[in-house]
Amino acid sequence: MPAPILQSSPLAGYLASKVDIDAAIAETLNSGWFILGQQTKTFEKEFADFVGATDCVGVGNGTDALEIALRACDIGPADAVLTVSHTAVATVAAIELTGATPVFVEIDPITFTMDPECLVRTIADYHGAGRNLPRLRAIIPVNLYGHPAALPSILAIARQHGLRVIEDCAQSHGATVEGRTTGTWGDLAAFSFYPTKNLGALGDGGAVVTNDAALASKVRLLREYGWRERYVSAVPGMNSRLDELQAAILRVKLRRLATDNDRRRTLARQYDTHLAGAPLGLPVTREGVTHVFHQYVIRTPRRDDLKEFLHSRGIGSLIHYPVPVHLQPAYRGRLFSSATGLRETERAAREVLSLPMYPQLTEKEIHQVGATLREWATTNR
Length: 381
Known about the structure:
single chain, alpha/beta, Aspartate Aminotransferase, domain 2, 2 domains, 8-stranded mixed beta sheet, 12 helices
């Protein structure tokens, strides 16, 4: 029986650069420096250059990156932050870690990202709620599945209302809008380097990116106890540092990121060809956007049946995300959303399915997945 076709494969990403990664690890071990050394400093410079930003600050993970970015904007218990419910729970958890209150905005059913019209409506509804609510201070648009949110529109709305914008770029390394890379639109941006990301470490890692020197300085303070000088905290901070081994690995993998993203787009086009005409909702790339296909996400009302069928044929798939944050036990019934509700968010959670997507997939494997999906579609018309 052939090996299963998995949804993602961090091991494959490692093997693709094994010689260079092993050499980078050996160099770091021999240096004897493991926290905030030259590897981290160099990676921060290289990643900032890749994104097109002036500053990058390496931190422990993507959740910390969001929390630190919010705290750098002085957002805390008296404040509220607009975001989406169709996201990894980390987005919302980071807001609450600052003491701030999440406020949910409906998504665009085509891209699954924040709908700017719904953002306007939610702000109006929030201001008109007639309750003693925390003040709105920021928006976190999530660039989901590798497709950017409607960042130009969201930024314009934010400026109109005096709100900060912090991009959640955990799934959009290298994606662009109007030729401008995600991570450079907002006041700050948070990246994750979890192993399955387009740029993934061999463990946890994250970064905050900004073009604002003052904010960058605050982020650097916050990531290490608020230290300007060692052992003396100028402000209350935390411990969230990108370690030298992960920085060394990320430096190697960053060299391949543009090529890997191109490969993901090629695989997505092959999926599109194989699935043309099938009764499935396929990914759409908005005009002016460069998609990096962190996930290739299809949708169907018979999602659970399809997932089981793929599994029976040795094909892995995942659901990103099966329960909207606002319906999860930890959050249900206690957070604000527009009076019109989050119907598209809840429908997406019932219908989305992520197919195998990583650069080492072969055309033969894509063909097999496509043929299996067509077989399912034929028997379920």
